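REQUEST ID: PR-0412
SUBMITTED BY: lab tech R.K.
PRIORITY: routine
TASK: structure prediction, single protein chain
INPUT:
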Amino acid sequence: MTKKHKDSSDITRAQIRQLGARLVARHRNFYAYTFFGFLAALINIVSFILFHSWWKIPLIYANTLSFIVSNLVSFVFNKHGVFVENVDTRHGTIYQLGLFFLYRILSLIPDNLIMLVGLSWLHWNTLFVKTIDQILVGIFNYLTTKSIFLNTSSRFTKYFKNKRAKNKIK
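STATUS: complete
OUTPUT:
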């Protein structure tokens, strides 16, 4: 007598919905970050075009200003819309904002380089270069941002916590 094996057609719609719900719940932060990150990138792109193309602010200054504007908005999005579960309640908003901008300043360097190469050297379209820039910088920012708001601290964060504690003792 042979055993009857379940094949994929035996999966019910309820089981598929349940699996889908678990997948969404498991990756909720990533989906929310993608949505709010898209909004922050859109703010960055629009503000850059406003600063650079309309107001004729030089490239690096316009990109840095749009970086500041979009990252202030991004901080609020991340704190109140993305990372709302398993949050770090031990540290206040000022600490998180400082760490947030410390990480983000690391992304400003490639951000400015991509813009400089794409616009000044290659003479590509502003919207195209800024969009590519925001995609690449957005991936880096997701990886660093989640360590700021979630209860899981990175080695970088622990280093600065220890350094701060040692300075208080002295």
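NOTES: The CA atoms of residues 6 and 106 lie 51 Å apart.
REVIEWED BY: pending
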